[in-house]
Amino acid sequence: MCRKPRSGTVGSVQKSTTPAVHATSLSKVYGAGSPGDVTVLALDNVTVGFPRERFTAIMGPSGSGKSTLLHCLAGLDKPTSGEVFIGGTETSSLSDTRLTALRRDRVGFVFQAFNLLPTLTAWENIVLPLDLAGRRPDQAFADTVIDGIGLRHRLGHKPNQLSGGQQQRVACARALITKPDVVFADEPTGALDSKSSADVLGFLRRSVDELGQTVVMVTHEPTAAAYADRVLFFADGRVVGELADPTADRVLDRMKDLEKVVV
Prior knowledge:
ATP hydrolysis activity; alpha/beta; globular; transmembrane transporter activity; ATP-binding; ATP binding; P-loop_NTPase
């Protein structure tokens, strides 16, 4: 894998240190609704920030809380306590209507299961968030994204006519089309072969370097985490470590050490 190129960064302007998304004192408890319920502390007073125009991977053992963190940051789940900010907007206290609008307009999502609508073409799936918002696409930007995923010749095809890797690249384009504050990716390569995984991860990497995007990705794969600028390690609902400029070997070594501690 090629290391993360920096020459393509938009305008060669120094990256802002202001977080694209951050959380303060974030906790999430499951199963505390009735007396006698077994409670699970999924997030334990987490304070963390994600800089703009950077690619961050989150890793940890199964059950460590990394996906819960992603879902709370993205507004897909409400924290039990604490605050989440996206682009300066505090999200955890928003009404359902306002939160839905914020997710549609300012957050991009890429999931393992693709989540494409089977009756729509690839192009229609890509621009769906804009259609729902009553907005027209910025055609120049859309062309840049489409050329980035390398599927211009497949835009008229429906999902069942595309491979898994092609579907995931369509999902990535859909996540970027609104020019969101942040793209959240939850195990985006979990259902893909190694070639398709490299295509998807390479596109996410280029979206940061060339389009100035911010990407936060949960993954269990060291090779996927190596595409990021930094890796946050999660255990028992807390951030327990960080690794800058990761390689697959360094990530794997840290995960082995972390799993020994957890066990």
